[in-house]
Structure formats: structure tokens, C-alpha cells
Specification:
The protein is mainly beta. It has two domains: about 15-45; about 50-160, no CATH class. Helices cover about 15% and strands about 40% of the residues. It has one helix and six strands. Strands 1, 2, 3, 4, 5 and 6 form a six-stranded antiparallel sheet that branches. Strand 3 and strand 4 form a beta hairpin. The chain is elongated and about 90 Å long. The N and C termini lie far apart (about 55 Å).
Length: about 180
């Protein structure tokens, strides 16, 4: 009950639609803009599955501006007692490719053909892929073009401008 000159207490659980719209409209516009930039390869997409390795495979990969160098990363798990969780990986980058990406992996296999290949160059001097540099003094290889058939990589992280997954399936097992 209210008395003359007093205002009624606000009811709990009511939605103030005008305030809701003031917050929702810019947030939705921002999400749409980020999705559009990602789909047009302006923003890169990074895939990392809790520091756990995953496999990247392709029947054929053709790329221009190939670089590869070693890096030391940290694993989320410590599988071997008495050992650190540091992992030595190879960072593989391509300026442009059928699957335009940077992969951090510890195992590679496939049939590779390189054009204008250079081995043993200081990884910090690589310039085929803009914005990608290896550690100073690190071993590297780089090529103008690369073609790899039956590619299989045991990867820990992947960054890509465009990442298409035809027939994508996701399954969790064990304790998840």
C-alpha cells in the first residue's frame, strides 16, 4: 500500500525492454561484425583444444610463401613424471594456401614438393609470411611454394584466416 506522495516500489522480475534493447543492439552488431571479419579472413581463427594434440589431415595442400621453424611450447598435461611440460614443436606458416593457416605440430607426414627451398636460415629472418617470425638463432626452412599430398599432422594449435571443416564432427569421451 502506498501513501499520497510516495512512489510504488519497483516490482521484481520485470524486464525493462528499452534498457535491454540499448544493450542488446550494439552487442549483436559487434558479434555480427566479428563473424563477418572472420569469414572474410580478416581476423584469424585459433583452434587449441586445452593443450591436447589433435590431427590435421588433407588430401592435397598447395601453398605459397612456406616457412617452418622450431618453437618450445607448454603442454597443459605433464605425461612423464620428472619431466617439464615443455614440448618442442615445429611452427609451419604459409602466406596463402588452399588451407591458409599456421600449425604448431610435433609430427608431420606426407609427400612434399618444395620450390626454391632454403634450409638452415635463421628463423628470425624469415619473411615469406607477413607477421610470422621464428626465434632468433633458430633453425628454419622456407620455400616460395609447397605442395603436400596425403598430409597428416599431429598438432597442438592451429591459427587460420579461413578454416572450413566439411563433415565436421565433435565427440567428447572419457571423463568429460
Amino acid at each position: 500500500m502506498t501513501f499520497v506522495g510516495e512512489t510504488a516500489p519497483a516490482r521484481l522480475g520485470r524486464v525493462r525492454w528499452r534498457r535491454f534493447a540499448i544493450i542488446l543492439v550494439p552487442a549483436t552488431a559487434l558479434v555480427v561484425m566479428l563473424l563477418m571479419l572472420t569469414s572474410q579472413s580478416v581476423l584469424a581463427v585459433s583452434v587449441s583444444i586445452s593443450g591436447q594434440p589433435f590431427d590435421v589431415t588433407a588430401k592435397l595442400l598447395k601453398g605459397q610463401g612456406f616457412e617452418q621453424f622450431g618453437v618450445v611450447e607448454h603442454s597443459a598435461t605433464n605425461d612423464l613424471p620428472g619431466h617439464s611440460n615443455q614440448i618442442v614443436l615445429a611452427a609451419t606458416a604459409m602466406r596463402s594456401a588452399t588451407i591458409n593457416l599456421v600449425v604448431f605440430a610435433d609430427r608431420f607426414s606426407g609427400n612434399a614438393s618444395f620450390k626454391h627451398l632454403t634450409l638452415g636460415r635463421d628463423a628470425s629472418t624469415l619473411n615469406e609470411v607477413p607477421g610470422i617470425r621464428g626465434p632468433s638463432g633458430g633453425f628454419s626452412m622456407h620455400a616460395k611454394t609447397v605442395t603436400i599430398s596425403n598430409l597428416k599432422q599431429h598438432a597442438f594449435a592451429t591459427t587460420a584466416g579461413t578454416f572450413t571443416l566439411p563433415g565436421f564432427r565433435l565427440r567428447f569421451g572419457g571423463g568429460c
